[in-house]
Amino acid sequence: MLSMKNISKVYQTEKVQTHALRDFNLEVKEGEFIAVTGPSGSGKTTFLNIAGMLEPFSSGEFMLDDVNVGTLSDNERADLRNQKIGFIFQGFNLIPDLNLYENIEVPLRYRGIKAAERKLRIEECLEKVGLASRAKHLPQQLSGGQQQRVAIARALAGKPRFLLADEPTGNLDSLMARQVMELLENINTEGSTIIMVTHDQELARRAPRNIQVVDGQLADFTLYQNKSSDSVSARVEQSIAEV
Ligand SMILES: Nc1ncnc2c1ncn2[C@@H]1O[C@H](COP(=O)(O)OP(=O)(O)OP(=O)(O)O)[C@@H](O)[C@H]1O
């Protein structure tokens, strides 16, 4: 359902050419929960941004549910992104002057969803992330973990097939990080496909599948990981230590 074949991404600045991804290949199946790890600067965010159609790729083939993304116009790509993708960022990206309800409502308005449907979705999503009683609060009145849960509710309200998360727990202490991870696991169990970039090895190990990006490519030892498989975890750790 998400397939990348030989995807490359070159950033060209005045003097420097950076190959952020080179011949990157990945197949993601419906309902997977994938943790993406790898050294700083290895191309994880670039991969996620291309998967979410936030930025173009330089060459290769990217198929999303039988749509060849490389052939789409800017508007078609934006439509597909709105239909299928939800984003969660490390910095939450909430609008400080809007309350939680309004924060979740903004992208729904943008998508032309009618008021009654918006209300239903917002209430349902706030309930799901355990913040139904806080709808009128401003983001600054919440803890970091709660703000991230609002950001997750905002992403969920769009009913995305794919939830893409870039360091969703990067600004959180370990307890809040675990709570956010549990929420993502529940959302995955309900059917959303999740791809999460993280530096947190403990959280990565909880995901059913781990992949590692090294020098813009999937590392050879990228594995299908079973939660109970300690030997696989040990190999991943060893590989990371060697990078
Ligand atoms: N807009 C840009 N212009 C030029 N180079 C860029 C740009 N964005 C990323 N890069 C370069 O592409 C490479 C991959 O960056 P990317 O942000 O994808 O890495 P990352 O694995 O997410 O890193 P980190 O873990 O530190 O966030 C890096 O060398 C980076 O400097």
From TrEMBL:
<dbReference type="Pfam" id="PF00005">
    <property type="entry name" value="ABC_tran"/>
</dbReference>
<dbReference type="GO" id="GO:1902495">
    <property type="term" value="C:transmembrane transporter complex"/>
</dbReference>
<keyword id="KW-0813">Transport</keyword>
<comment type="similarity">
    <text>Belongs to the ABC transporter superfamily. Macrolide exporter (TC 3.A.1.122) family.</text>
</comment>
<dbReference type="GO" id="GO:0005524">
    <property type="term" value="F:ATP binding"/>
</dbReference>
<dbReference type="InterPro" id="IPR017911">
    <property type="entry name" value="MacB-like_ATP-bd"/>
</dbReference>
<protein>
    <submittedName>
        <fullName>ATP-binding cassette domain-containing protein</fullName>
    </submittedName>
</protein>
<keyword id="KW-0547">Nucleotide-binding</keyword>
<dbReference type="InterPro" id="IPR017871">
    <property type="entry name" value="ABC_transporter-like_CS"/>
</dbReference>
<feature type="domain" description="ABC transporter">
    <location>
        <begin position="2"/>
        <end position="240"/>
    </location>
</feature>
<keyword id="KW-0067">ATP-binding</keyword>
<dbReference type="GO" id="GO:0022857">
    <property type="term" value="F:transmembrane transporter activity"/>
</dbReference>
<dbReference type="InterPro" id="IPR003439">
    <property type="entry name" value="ABC_transporter-like_ATP-bd"/>
</dbReference>
<dbReference type="InterPro" id="IPR027417">
    <property type="entry name" value="P-loop_NTPase"/>
</dbReference>
<dbReference type="InterPro" id="IPR015854">
    <property type="entry name" value="ABC_transpr_LolD-like"/>
</dbReference>
<dbReference type="GO" id="GO:0016887">
    <property type="term" value="F:ATP hydrolysis activity"/>
</dbReference>
<dbReference type="GO" id="GO:0005886">
    <property type="term" value="C:plasma membrane"/>
</dbReference>
<dbReference type="InterPro" id="IPR003593">
    <property type="entry name" value="AAA+_ATPase"/>
</dbReference>
